[in-house]
């Protein structure tokens, strides 16, 4: 096998984090000049490494930093762009002793968009050094950081194993990867293309009427599309921000005509639509008020982690609008506490009055669903929250909660670290979730907090 056909592993990161040192470690010869002065090594270094029996082509991007544009970030990016483009795996290094710098964060967000597999490395973590930075590194959204020391050779065997696991299968080398998907099969990154929207609700809530109204307003075309299941028809709307794809609309029409088992069916049908959607519009017949089934669908939306807008339809037929709205909002607030502050839009799909407010509300909640909070901001709030309301005693001892970081968006998901954190009572977790939602303005989206015990 020539070097050209080997899987390509690229070492990237800002100057001085230890890229060259790591390169030497993996290649096993002292090929690169290592120095304390940033940007001293000048040439792009390549070498072959043998990792768990697999030969790989290793590229060190240190030294490419000088030729490039004048900001540090610009240099990092320019130096890495061509290398990353051809990478089967990027080893993104940070310095665990200095912590995450703005340049690291910037580069990480660019790297996430490159759609290449990334292994995050917290270097200079010999002994127990750098544990905090390693935790902090979760916030980069590049998965679990691997703490190691290139200079002292600690963690290198683990690293080799991790790399070997992430390489494409030998026969499929050089193939492009699909978008990154997490363990639950959810996309971690905002995919290119239209926002995916589902309109769901009980039979006769007015979903078809709403769809026709939206289509009439937007003068859009519907039609079968390749790659979709036989009876699913893609409908695309346009608003001032681009395209919105409606999912599972064919199923919706068909089911609405079935007379039997309507109640049960509308929930199971909702599950399908939900899974395909990013944002869900839950249509409720305002003349009937909130039905148990609406709540069931609402809970489903939260369980599946989707963003939600509640549409109170048939507003034209509602007599006392103030009282109706208050009654419905109260019921939702009490029974759907998981999704506090969901945006509620009132309209009449029949006359079209108010329907123009729906898509802007969808866009807004979509942005929130995708949002990320910086680790600094998050932990400033977290310290405050702990002070205002101490964590409870469990078995007579107070839980020590240390640190929080956002690991994922879509929906916003946070990891909470602390001694015995996994024993945190639900009530306190709810306190944190509600605080997060309020402070960082995340109404209408599920907010997840996962607990991680540390020693
Ligand atoms: P590069 O600019 O990213 O290629 O970084 P270098 O490999 O040139 O390393 C920069 C500095 O960090 C050098 O002084 C190295 O000796 C030091 N260094 C590299 N790895 C480690 C490590 O694991 N622990 C410590 N403490 N220092 C390291
Ligand atoms: P679906 O089963 O959710 O798709 O509901 P449809 O769109 O078929 O509507 C069910 C019934 O409600 C039809 O008779 C519609 O004309 C009526 N409807 C839908 N939207 C409105 C509305 O905004 N106001 C009123 N008064 N009736 C509506």
Automatic annotation (TrEMBL):
Pfam family, one: MMR_HSR1
InterPro entries in UniProt: G_ENGA, GTP-bd, GTPase_Der, KH_dom-like, KH_dom-like_a/b, P-loop_NTPase, Small_GTP-bd
Compositionally biased tracts (Basic and acidic residues): 167-183
Binding site for GTP 2: 201-208, 248-252, 313-316
Keyword Repeat: yes
Binding site for GTP 1: 13-20, 60-64, 123-126
Record domain EngA-type G: where: 7-171, 195-370
Keyword Nucleotide-binding: yes
Region span, Disordered: 167-190
Chain segments annotated as transmembrane: none
Entry keyword set: GTP-binding, Nucleotide-binding, Repeat, Ribosome biogenesis
SUBUNIT field: Associates with the 50S ribosomal subunit.
Family membership: Belongs to the TRAFAC class TrmE-Era-EngA-EngB-Septin-like GTPase superfamily. EngA (Der) GTPase family.
PANTHER family with a match to the protein in the record: GTPASE DER (PTHR43834:SF6)
Function: GTPase that plays an essential role in the late steps of ribosome biogenesis.
The name this protein goes by in its record: GTPase Der
Organism of origin: Gluconobacter kondonii
